[in-house]
Design brief:
three-stranded antiparallel β-sheet; 177 residues; Ribosomal Protein S8, Chain: A, domain 1; GMP Synthetase, Chain A, domain 3; alpha+beta; 55% helix; 2 domains
Amino acid sequence: MTEGTTTSAVEVEDAASADESLVSRLEQEGDIAADYLEGLLDIADLDGDIDMDVEGDRALVSIVSDGNDRALQRLVGQDGEVLEALQELTRLAVHRETGERSRLMLDIAGFRARKRSELAALGAKAAEQAKSTGEQVKLQPMTPFERKVVHDAVAAAGLRSESEGEEPQRCVVVLPA
């Protein structure tokens, strides 16, 4: 073996410990976020359950209803504007408690999950268009979350994409092969 290619048991243990530490920190973020959001739901007199999960390197918190998503739609707002604001407020609440910046993702009544599916389809369609025409495809301005989903879909289709412009007019450009 060449030098630097062996992995010691200590290194494996350290990596496992770091993973456990990250998951523990993200679970703590989820708990703080859930408490904050439950307080907001109480103030707004809205019913909803809080689901928490950890995906990759971020905590995912969802507010789901027991069948009456219509009431929670007020917390989503037009095109998710209220949802984005609530996500930032929730991140601030986590930051206040932990002292660390949070990348927590909030979903309400499945809005982000539906949006993610739509954006993945849009990214795949734009990639197919770029492949067939050999020309770049410029999409409408999007939020950072939306751009990330489109970039991932384009990459999955085997093409490259980049963001251009200034917020809030920043958009994805899909590049031909």
